[in-house]
Amino acid sequence: MILPLGLAITLASGVAPAISRWAQIQERRILAEGVPLQAEHLAFATELKIQNPEEVRVLEVQQIPMPVPDPLIRMARNFGIRIILPAGMTLGRGIYVLKGNWGVMRHELVHVEQYQTLGGIGPFMQRYILECLFHGYEDAPLEVDAENRSRH
User: Fold this and answer.
1) Distance (Å, rounded) from C-alpha 86 to C-alpha 131?
2) Which stretches within the chain are classed as H helix?
3) pLDDT tens digits, 41-87
4) How many CA atoms lie within 13 A of 53 on its CB side?
5) What is the C-alpha separation between 79 and 45, in angstroms, rounded?
6) CA-CA distance, 104 to 3, in Å (whole number)?
């Protein structure tokens, strides 16, 4: 479901602060429990000009946590909002990878660079949520950018 711009702005403004706080907690977990980038991913992070790429951490998990409880996800789906269960999720300098899905790393590293360029978790989340609500996940400019740059 793609929302009208005004409604998308209102929703994004309302939920972005809470999701940003959740993302900061998740980033701390990944940084504490995760592993450094593998050599090939470190090289790509350097190509992207990620600041301090040696500080980026990756945590492989059985299930990537979501910022909202399962009942809300089910309710959103009932209203036609497409909820994607990702194979990877970047939160600042931390990256969750679904077990066995390391192929998403280049895409997720582009998101690390986007977080840095946009000024951190708060500004990134505000823009990302707005783009997903207004354009849809697949057509959100930050997602399109990550997809395009991760292929080259």
Assistant:
1) 17
2) 5-33, 39-47, 70-78, 105-118, 121-135, 141-151
3) 999 999 999 999 999 999 999 999 998 888 877 887 787 777 777 99
4) 20
5) 38
6) 28
Rounded distance between C-alpha atoms, residue 38 and residue 82, angstroms: 33
* Residue 92 backbone phi and psi in degrees, to 5: 70, -115
pLDDT in tens, 10-22: 988 888 999 999 9
pTM: 0.90
For the chain, the domains span 5-146
Residue 56's SS3 state is: coil
Kindly report the number of other CB atoms within 10 A of residue 67's CB atom.
19
